[in-house]
Every structure is written in C-alpha cells, then in structure tokens.
C-alpha cells in the first residue's frame, strides 16, 4: 500500500474520532500523559499544518513558530477539518514521496516523513478514541502496515531519540494490541 494512501486513511480515521468529541470532553486525560484531549489534538493538528510547507521544501527555520502554541483556537474540530485537505494534498502530490524534505533532525525523503506522519496519526487516533470513549478499533490494514514499518524504526529512531516511552507487554497477540504496546500503550 502506498504511503500517501496510508496517510490519507489514517487521517480519515482521526477525523471521525475528532468529530465525535463532545464539547465537555476536551479536558479529559489521554494515554499521552503530557496532553489532555485538546492538547493531543492540537499536537496532531499542528503536524498537519506543518505538512504542506515541509513538502514545499521549507525548513523548520523557514516555518519558524507559525504553528507553535494553540493552533485550535475556538473551533478545534473546524481547524482540524481545515488542516486535512492541504496535508493530504501535500503528501499525495506528484513526486512528493521522492523529494527531500528538511526536518529538524535532518534531510530525509518525503516518504520517510509521510510514514512518520501516518504512524503518529494512527496511534494518536487510538489515543483520542480512548480518551473520549470513542471507537478504539483501528483499521487492521493500517495496523499491519504500521507494524511492518515500525519494526525498522522502533529502536534506532523512536526509542533511542526518546520519542516514545518504554514498550509495554501486550495483553494478547492481536496486531493492534502489539502495535499499541510497542508505542507504550496498554490497550
């Protein structure tokens, strides 16, 4: 499956979960101890907003603090919806996955960045569902694709850089449970 398709499908899953958040739920705790539900959605929306300028060739320095702080404002769901189309278009553009993008840690192929985005959106969509008592069942095809990709990235990229916490022992061997455990979550 093409990484741009994985990204698009993960965004669709996140969009459905964000749309289901009721007004009184934004301050609920999430599996990410640093963020409540609003903070988590703000984090992912910020990443979505970063995607177009990064695929246009801009560097982190070029973008600066444009997406720092609260990007959600008074309409979190509306800001999310507005960020979706441009992010998907950037990842899906002709040649986007082959071009070099400039990230804070160095230059990488667009496919690497899109894969990171896909994984982050997929796992955080489960976090949103868990926090808001939403649908926690992730698309099995996306889970399998993420597991395959993450096998090469987990230790050297994510855990070594402190981007994820320690893995936990999965409660069973279901692929979704294993994926979440590898990202430090207990399903």
From TrEMBL:
<dbReference type="InterPro" id="IPR034660">
    <property type="entry name" value="DinB/YfiT-like"/>
</dbReference>
<feature type="domain" description="Mycothiol-dependent maleylpyruvate isomerase metal-binding">
    <location>
        <begin position="8"/>
        <end position="129"/>
    </location>
</feature>
<dbReference type="InterPro" id="IPR024344">
    <property type="entry name" value="MDMPI_metal-binding"/>
</dbReference>
<dbReference type="InterPro" id="IPR017517">
    <property type="entry name" value="Maleyloyr_isom"/>
</dbReference>
<dbReference type="InterPro" id="IPR017520">
    <property type="entry name" value="CHP03086"/>
</dbReference>
<protein>
    <submittedName>
        <fullName>TIGR03086 family metal-binding protein</fullName>
    </submittedName>
</protein>
<dbReference type="Pfam" id="PF11716">
    <property type="entry name" value="MDMPI_N"/>
</dbReference>
């Amino acid at each position: 499956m093409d990484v741009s398709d994985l990204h698009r499908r993960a965004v669709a899953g996140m969009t459905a979960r964000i749309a289901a958040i009721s007004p009184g739920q934004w301050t609920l705790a999430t599996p990410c101890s640093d963020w409540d539900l609003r903070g988590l959605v703000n984090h992912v929306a910020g990443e979505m907003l970063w995607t177009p300028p990064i695929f246009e060739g801009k560097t982190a320095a070029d973008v600066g603090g444009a997406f720092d702080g609260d990007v959600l404002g008074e309409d979190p769901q509306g800001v999310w919806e507005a960020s979706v189309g441009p992010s998907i278009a950037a990842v899906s553009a002709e040649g986007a996955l082959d071009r070099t993008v400039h990230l804070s840690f160095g230059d990488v192929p667009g496919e690497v960045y899109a894969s990171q985005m896909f994984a982050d959106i997929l796992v955080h969509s489960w976090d949103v569902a868990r926090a808001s008592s939403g649908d926690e069942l992730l698309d099995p095809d996306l889970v399998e694709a993420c597991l395959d990709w993450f096998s090469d990235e987990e230790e050297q990229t994510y855990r070594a850089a402190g981007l994820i916490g320690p893995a936990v022992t999965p409660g069973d061997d279901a692929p979704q449970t294993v994926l979440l455990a590898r990202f430090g979550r207990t399903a």
